[in-house]
Every structure is written in structure tokens, then in C-alpha cells.
Design goal:
Blueprint lengths: L8 E11 L9 E7 L19 E4 H11 L3 E5 L9 H10 L3 E6 L13 E5 L24 E6 L2 H13 L2 H4 L1 E6 L6 H11 L4 E2 L3 H6 L6
Parallel strand pairs: 2-4, 4-5, 5-6, 6-7, 7-8, 8-9
Antiparallel strand pairs: 1-2, 1-3
Cofactor: Mg(2+); S-adenosyl-L-methionine; [4Fe-4S] cluster
Protein name: 7-carboxy-7-deazaguanine synthase
Family: Belongs to the radical SAM superfamily. 7-carboxy-7-deazaguanine synthase family.
Length: 219
């Protein structure tokens, strides 16, 4: 078989079937396509094993592997998937194939080229992440109702910062806003109490995959 041309390939860490652990499709059986590489180094990162390595996959082969699992939901994640330019082609091809596609991105890179059929889950980095300076605020005006903004919170400082971001940028009027506690750093009940006390227009969530499988690769 001919070697795929570089422009048709992506470096992939893993492709696997699991339950979606967060965002608005939480709980649905989902195929995850985890791309290799990330320019950020958040202190709470769970798939740090995706920073390096991986294997080159032809986009047609990726679609064939996704189809093999037989579910409708597909999540393209990382690492930081948008760090690979051909990610945009993959997202388009998945949408063309009829899948319900979401993209998990740090928000440090431009989301403007993402197919409008994709639900973009943009993770705005808090001070506690160690990468708050990497947030690309130019992405905020691009957000649409099918998108989501996610804040992973490490403590009260992060909560207050995120609360101010929601108010300053009227994020809740653009898309769904998600607040979740960083496992082992912020008590979930405490965060829930803060949200209720402030009557925030945000959705509290727990990272289901961490509860069930504790960051196990491929789950």
C-alpha cells in the first residue's frame, strides 16, 4: 500500500470508545480521537501521555476506525488538536459522514476555521492552571450557541476569576458555560455552594471519566 501523503495524515495517540465525561453530551457513548501534541502545560493535565509519541494516521483510516465502533458521537481531543493543521480537515470529514462531532480545545489557538457543524468546547485556562496567559480572547466573539466554554477550577481564586470572565464577556449569552472542580484540588460540594450562592448562569459538572476511571488511558 502506498504511504499516505503528509497532508492527509495526523499524529494520533489513541482512538477509543468510552462515555463522554463532560460538556453537554456527558454520558453518551462516544468515540474519542486523541491527537498527539500540545503547546500548553497545565498543572492538572490528565492526558500528559499525549504530549509526545503517537502514530501517523491517514484521515481515511481514522474515519474507518471511528466507523468500526458504531456510535454517533465523536470527540476530537488531545493534547491540543488544533495544533495540527489537518485537524480542520478531519473535523469536516467527520461532519460530512454524519457524526455528531465535538472538539475539545484549550482556546489558546484560533477556533475560527473549525467547521460550523462542530460543537467547540473551549477550555479557558484559569490562573490555577498555570497557563492563563495563553488564553486567546479573540476566540470569544466567535462563540456560537452550539459551543461551550469550560472552566476547570482549582480553588476560590480560580472561581472568582471565572465568575468575572463570565460577567465581563457575557459568556452565558453566547453559549453554555461549564464550571467543574479540578479533582483533588477543589471540593465539588464547595464549588456547588459558591455557584448557588452567586446564582451564576453556569452549569456545574463533574468530570465523569475521572470519577469512573481515574485518568486511565483509553477510558
Amino acid at each position: 500500500m502506498d504511504t499516505p501523503l503528509p497532508q492527509n495524515r495526523l499524529r494520533i495517540t489513541e482512538i477509543f470508545l468510552s462515555l463522554q465525561g463532560e460538556a453537554d453530551t456527558v454520558g453518551w457513548p462516544t468515540v474519542f480521537v486523541r491527537l498527539t501534541g500540545c503547546p500548553l502545560r497545565c498543572q492538572y493535565c490528565d492526558p500528559a501521555y499525549a504530549f509526545h509519541g503517537g502514530q501517523w494516521w491517514d484521515i481515511d483510516a481514522i474515519l474507518a476506525e471511528v466507523a468500526r465502533h458504531g456510535v454517533r458521537h465523536v470527540c476530537v481531543t488531545g493534547g491540543e488538536p488544533l495544533a495540527q493543521k489537518r485537524c480542520l480537515d478531519l473535523l469536516r470529514r467527520l461532519c460530512d459522514a454524519g457524526y455528531l462531532v465535538s472538539l475539545e480545545t484549550s482556546g489558546a489557538l484560533d477556533i475560527g476555521g473549525v467547521d460550523p457543524r462542530v460543537s467547540r468546547v473551549v477550555d479557558l485556562k484559569t490562573p490555577g492552571s498555570g497557563e492563563v496567559a495563553r488564553n486567546r480572547l479573540e476566540n470569544i466573539p466567535l462563540l456560537a450557541p452550539r459551543d461551550q466554554v469550560k472552566f476547570v477550577l482549582c480553588g476560590r481564586e480560580d472561581y472568582e476569576w471565572a465568575r468575572d470572565m463570565v460577567a465581563t464577556h457575557a459568556l452565558d449569552r453566547r453559549c453554555q458555560v461549564l464550571f467543574s472542580p479540578s479533582k483533588g484540588q477543589l471540593d465539588a460540594r464547595e464549588l456547588a455552594d459558591w455557584i448557588v450562592a452567586d446564582r451564576l448562569p453556569v452549569r456545574f459538572q463533574l468530570q465523569l471519566h475521572k470519577i469512573l476511571w481515574n485518568d486511565e488511558p483509553g477510558r
